[in-house]
């Protein structure tokens, strides 16, 4: 187990290094000059050359790369060219919003999707199963931006129940802002006694959370259903029924446990992707998360911000998959000695 963990950690280091190398080369070779971006339209050659010297862009590419790797190892990702703030601060502030949204969505999906998938498999080809399968296909087929805007039209435009976008009301930001502790407003607000801020944060997260939940629920439900159908055909499950064990024990203690590894794989990949890939949902709801920040940084040639955020996302994605790998051994003890 220890050897496997070391191998995975070394692989993570190699993958992160490869991702950073690709992003670094693309940002230097294909992107426009950051100096021209900072100086505005039509800067003189002297001004551009001076700015390139200050940014270290006149040095050989290999020297720039080694310098960047050294800064990363020291935890220095530089300052954003647009905001002039440290990239780590920018990433840290936005990661809390993305983490809160995607983690809540993933938890709700697991709590709802797995029981629905089990029920659908148990009642295969029944009305319940047909409804679940139809809803799952619809959930996968509907584009995320269409679903997000439809929910906005319904709950904000027609019913007026929930806010349109943002993370909290403007009045909260100006009058009684939530003091950051963990970066998660739904935790920080109660910890600081800011219940008005908590209710505002809860109302604002409802629509993007519902959007992500609907999108993810279809995948988890279908995977659970398909795996359960296969497991329910096994001999030991039929033997358990023959011995008269309670159905709930057979379904959830024996059959579901046998499906957890593929479910964990899908959940790990989906969750890791969401941490940096929920760009569309964040954009529609103006959610101040990390995905939209990365896209904006790349579009505006803010290469320190884009490189720093990419490095952070790659590391987070690989860490999630490492945790999933370790959970395999928890779910299936045979893998501990494999």
CATH superfamily: MetI-like
Radius of gyration: 24 Å
Number of strand elements: 0
Query: In CATH, what is the class?
Result: Mainly Alpha
Based on secondary structure, the structural category is mainly alpha
Strand content: under 5%
Q: CATH fold name, please?
A: MetI-like fold
Transmembrane segments: 9-31, 101-122, 134-159, 198-218, 260-285, 305-331
GO molecular function, one term: dipeptide transmembrane transporter activity
Keywords: Cell membrane, Membrane, Transmembrane, Transmembrane helix, Transport
Protein name: ABC transporter permease
List keywords for this structure.
mainly alpha; 338 residues; MetI-like fold; 76% helix
If you had to describe this structure to a student in words, what would you say it looks like?
Helix 1 (2-29) packs antiparallel against helix 15, helix 6 packs across helix 10 (195-231) and helix 10 (195-231) packs across helix 12 (247-277). The protein has helices at residues 2-29, 34-39, 45-55, 61-73, 87-122, 127-141, 144-158, 170-175, 185-191, 195-231, 235-242, 247-277, 279-284, 290-299, 303-331. The protein is mainly α. It has a single domain (87-336), classed as MetI-like fold. Helices cover 76% and strands 0% of the residues. It is built from 15 helices and no strands. Its main location: membrane. This is ABC transporter permease. It comes from Mesorhizobium ciceri.
């Amino acid at each position: 187990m220890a050897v496997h963990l070391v191998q995975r950690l070394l692989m993570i280091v190699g993958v992160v290094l490869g991702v950073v190398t690709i992003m670094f080369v693309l940002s230097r070779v294909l992107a426009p000059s950051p100096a021209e971006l900072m100086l505005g339209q039509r800067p003189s050659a002297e001004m551009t050359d001076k700015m390139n010297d200050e940014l270290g862009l006149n040095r050989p590419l290999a020297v720039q790369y080694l310098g960047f790797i050294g800064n990363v190892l020291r935890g220095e990702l530089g300052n954003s060219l647009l905001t002039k703030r440290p990239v780590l601060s920018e990433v840290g502030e936005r990661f809390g919003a993305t983490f809160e949204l995607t983690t809540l969505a993933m938890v709700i999906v697991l709590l709802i999707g797995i029981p629905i998938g089990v029920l659908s498999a148990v009642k295969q080809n029944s009305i319940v199963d047909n409804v679940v399968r139809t809803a799952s296909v619809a959930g996968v087929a509907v584009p995320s931006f269409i679903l997000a805007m439809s929910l906005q039209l319904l709950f904000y435009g027609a019913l007026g129940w929930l806010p349109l976008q943002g993370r909290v009301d403007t009045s909260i930001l100006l009058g009684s802002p939530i003091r950051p502790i963990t970066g998660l407003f739904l935790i920080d607000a109660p910890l600081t006694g800011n219940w008005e801020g908590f209710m505002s944060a809860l109302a604002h997260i409802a629509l993007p959370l519902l959007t992500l939940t609907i999108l993810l629920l279809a995948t988890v439900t279908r995977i659970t259903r398909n795996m359960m159908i296969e497991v329910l055909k096994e001999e030991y499950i039929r033997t358990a029924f023959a011995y008269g064990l309670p159905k709930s024990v057979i379904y959830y203690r024996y059959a579901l446990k046998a499906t957890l590894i593929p479910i964990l794989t899908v959940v790990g990949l989906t969750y890791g992707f969401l941490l940096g890939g929920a760009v569309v949902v964040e954009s529609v709801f103006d959610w101040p998360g990390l995905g939209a920040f990365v896209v904006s940084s790349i579009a505006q040639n803010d290469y320190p911000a884009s490189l720093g955020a990419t490095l952070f996302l790659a590391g987070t994605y690989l860490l999630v998959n490492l945790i999933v790998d370790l959970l395999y051994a928890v779910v299936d003890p045979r893998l501990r000695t494999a």
